[in-house]
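Quiz preparation item.
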């Protein structure tokens, strides 16, 4: 496979799509992104290839601040195991979300046979041991659930954040049907100085709105598929959160993973900042 020089932004035939490709790096900073990709393979040498069905974006953590999450749902067991094998062979860490029952059994067998896997959140996540592509500064995220039925999804978000090294504080079963429970929990959570709240609620989905009226940090509402009848399975909760009169952000129904990654981006250390810090460190043995 030939090596090519990537043209600067604004150079090249627009029909090749190179200008659009370059614009995708603008948020990270043109200079840093172009320096890392000045000479690279056309297909991307940093991608991990598993057969002809998967390319793992192992530069995503450095590029956007959060790693790629491998979705188990919808993949065959053979495909998922091949992806795990490619990650392990390259020494690349990863997270697997929403594995099916058959995938959980296969991953558990692989773990027993020495594959560096770790189940998280009661098997709703798996961690492939190895670097995830970036580092995070110290900080805390608060996770709040309206009811006990929301806890499994909240554990998914917690598993992602803990795997990334971000502190988590939590309060469960503090929904608005018993508002005194939330009022008691908030002072304890606030003592940890969380920079983001993730609020999980099904049914009428009121918890994020009430919480956003009590705390200064941003609140992300996560509607859960808890509830039944008209507006059940998270539909009423999602609609209520979208109509919140308090300023909140909202993810899709059962969107624990996107919510966790959104929160984690706040703590990601920029690649350039890490490089400057290393370059200013005194050599070993110098004063």
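Solution:
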């Amino acid at each position: 496979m030939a090596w090519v020089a990537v043209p600067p932004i604004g150079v090249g035939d627009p029909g090749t799509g190179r200008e659009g490709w370059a614009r995708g790096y603008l948020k990270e900073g043109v200079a840093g992104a172009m320096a890392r990709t000045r000479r690279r393979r056309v297909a991307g040498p940093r991608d991990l290839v598993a057969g002809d069905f998967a390319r793992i974006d192992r530069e995503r953590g450095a590029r956007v601040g959060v790693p790629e999450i491998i979705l188990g749902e919808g993949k065959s067991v053979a495909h998922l195991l091949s992806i795990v094998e490619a990650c392990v062979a390259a020494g690349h860490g990863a997270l697997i979300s929403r594995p099916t029952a058959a995938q959980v059994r296969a991953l558990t067998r692989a773990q027993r046979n020495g594959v560096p896997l770790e189940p998280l959140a009661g098997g709703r996540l798996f961690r492939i041991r190895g670097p995830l592509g970036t580092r995070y500064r110290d900080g805390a995220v608060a996770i709040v659930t309206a009811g006990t039925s929301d806890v499994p999804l909240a554990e998914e978000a917690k598993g992602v954040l803990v795997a990334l090294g971000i502190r988590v504080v939590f309060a469960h079963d503090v929904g608005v049907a018993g508002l005194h429970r939330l009022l008691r929990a908030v002072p304890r959570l606030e003592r940890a100085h969380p920079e983001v709240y993730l609020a999980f609620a099904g049914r009428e989905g009121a918890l994020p709105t009430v919480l956003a009226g009590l705390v200064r940090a941003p609140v992300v509402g996560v509607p859960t598929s808890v509830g039944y009848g008209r507006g059940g399975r998270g539909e009423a909760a999602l609609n209520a959160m979208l109509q919140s009169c308090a300023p909140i952000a909202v993810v899709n129904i059962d969107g624990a993973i996107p919510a966790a990654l959104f929160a984690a981006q706040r703590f990601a250390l920029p690649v350039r900042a890490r490089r400057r810090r290393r370059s200013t460190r005194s050599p070993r043995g110098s004063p």
